[in-house]
UniProtKB/TrEMBL annotation:
Pfam families: Abhydrolase_1
Provenance organism: Streptomyces yokosukanensis
Name under which the protein is recorded: AB hydrolase-1 domain-containing protein
Signal peptide coordinates: none
GO annotations of cellular component type: membrane
Length: 256
């Protein structure tokens, strides 16, 4: 099982749910995306397809041919790109707490039309990194507080702050946003997914209907569910319910 984090997080976002999934017999892999956590921060831009290639290569390097895959936030965008580029890698796919490039995201990127301001700011990755240098904790702490219902602990925040104050780490995180328009064009041309897809959101997270409507265009077999008592960081906020729902999707008919 491969779990792919969002922004402004690292693999730590999945820490609480990982042992629960391991107890159910899964080999759990939670990598840091390119540019995030303890992964390298390359120069220049990279697309979701580039990140997807990283995950494809990692899966093979670890000796696995197929996996159950779950992504959240920008990790959802990456695993969707992975499923399009290498569909044989992924048995079943979970998309959560995001809007999909090419399938609804663009409508929420324009502040003049009611979209969120941070997409445009983060997309100017080098400028955004310059303006937040030395102010990483002040900038990120508001996101962490808004996105969790207590699952992201003080020790988690300390680890995340360590990761995001590494050299070039803020730019590395912002680079996930820098190519979203191109990512959308690529996704639209990438074809419809054939593997079963589950759309999962926290009860107090992003409105699910945007991702669900996009997923129904992007995949043939889609179901949806909510993790109660949880916000954007649902796997940290309610790890037991998350582990149960993931395991049920990965082992039974996704509509059940």
């Amino acid at each position: 099982m491969v779990l792919v984090h969002g922004w402004p997080f690292t693999w730590v976002e999945w820490r609480a749910v990982m042992p629960l999934l391991a107890e159910r017999g899964y080999t759990v892999i939670a990598p840091d995306l390119r540019g995030s956590g303890d992964s390298s921060v390359p120069a220049g831009r990279w697309t979701k397809r580039d990140e997807a290639e990283d995950l494809h290569q990692l899966l093979g390097h670890l000796g696995h041919e197929r996996a159950f895959v779950a992504g959240t936030d920008v990790g959802t965008m990456t695993v969707h790109a992975w499923a399009q580029a290498h569909p044989d890698d992924i048995s079943r796919l979970v998309l959560s707490e995001a809007f999909l490039p090419g399938y609804g995201l663009e409508d929420h990127m324009n502040p003049a039309a009611g979209g969120s301001w941070h997409f445009g700011f983060h997309a100017q990755s080098e400028l955004a990194a310059l303006l937040t240098e030395g102010k990483e904790e002040q900038y990120l702490s508001g996101f962490w507080s808004m996105m969790t219902k207590g699952g992201i602990t003080e020790s988690d925040r300390a680890e995340l702050l360590r990761a995001y104050t590494r050299p070039h780490a803020m730019r590395g995180g912002f680079e996930h946003y820098a190519t979203l328009v191109d990512d959308g064009r690529t996704a639209r041309a990438g074809g419809v997914l054939e593997m079963p897809v589950l759309v999962l959101n926290g009860e107090h997270g992003l409105p699910q209907h945007v991702l669900l409507e996009g997923a129904r265009q992007a995949a043939r077999e889609v179901s949806a569910d909510i993790i109660l008592g949880a916000a954007h960081t649902f796997a940290a906020d309610n790890p037991h319910a998350t582990a149960e729902r993931l395991a049920r999707f990965f082992t039974t008919n996704p509509g059940i």
